[in-house]
Amino acid sequence: MSELDPVIHAQARLRVVVTLATLADGDRITFPRLQELLAMTPGNLSVHLRKLEDAGYVEIDKTHRGRTPTTLVRLSRRGRRAFEEYTENIRALLDPPAPRETR
Amino acid sequence: MTTDGDTAPLDAADAMRLIREQRASTARRLEPDPRVHYWPWGFAWLIGFGIYFLRFSPDGRTLVAMPAWLPLTLLFVLLAAAAAVFGVGSARAYRHVAGESARRGSWYGASWGLGFLSLSLILGRVTDSLPHDLAGLLWSALSVALTGALHMAGGAIWLDRTLFRLGVWLTAVNIVGVLAGPGWHALVVSVAGGGGMLVAGALARQRHG
């Protein structure tokens, strides 16, 4: 049985990762919109994003749109893969893959 | 949910449910009701081409008396209103998302705009020298042809079966209408074309959940 990725396996971060994974590959979302989709406080979201960034799962770009500074967030390739693996592991836990061996 | 979730216990079933719910709610909020994409156009066609048919009916007749300028003006106002609803709806959903989807959407929007600009410039040059019924047929048939092609292209871009099938349907409806001739074309496009868009919107809505 594979271990569940501890970076993803926490309620708040799992919600962040799922939301980012729902975006099309190559899309980035602004911090305030992400916050709105998740209904999280800015501080709370920042903490989780930093942990995800440290793990290399999330890429955060600080740019400018016109004159206003904007923070754009996206799931990295690595993050997307990690989430896919995590989902597979969860599925395997819920529905053990080798039913013949149980008898 | 705003408390720190690091320590919250999470078993596999909870995690699976959370993934499903969060994905569904994000998708719903990023892509609002798909009827916004179809119904404004559907109603514009149904009403606009319907009234055009009543004024410029087959064999040069007039089923309902009204000024000659009214049907086309009304059609263009309805189409402009549909474009506004559609544009505001998509821009609202996609606000604060940057990247490939946004670029895809804006290039697709530009192809509509430029396509219809070039079409109307070309038609404006030639239709004065045509009899009224043929000029009307040319305008509407070419507009529907371009619309059908762009719907098919949109289906190809987003791999959206509903959009692609609607494009095929509009193309077929257009051909039938052109073969039937001036007057009939407006009726066919109104009922089958506009109606087809309403049906496509209802189907997309069902799939969206």
Automatic annotation (TrEMBL), chain A:
The lineage of its organism: Bacteria, Bacillati, Actinomycetota, Actinomycetes, Micromonosporales. The keyword Zinc-finger does not apply. GO terms for molecular function: DNA binding. Residues 20-93 form the Winged helix DNA-binding domain. This is Winged helix DNA-binding domain-containing protein. Keywords: DNA-binding. PANTHER family: BSL7504 PROTEIN. The keyword DNA-binding applies. SUPFAM superfamilies: Winged helix' DNA-binding domain. Transmembrane segments: none annotated.
From TrEMBL, chain B:
Keywords: Membrane, Transmembrane, Transmembrane helix. It comes from the Bacteria. The chain crosses the membrane at residues 38-56, 68-94, 106-124, 136-158, 163-180. This is Uncharacterized protein. It comes from Micromonospora matsumotoense.
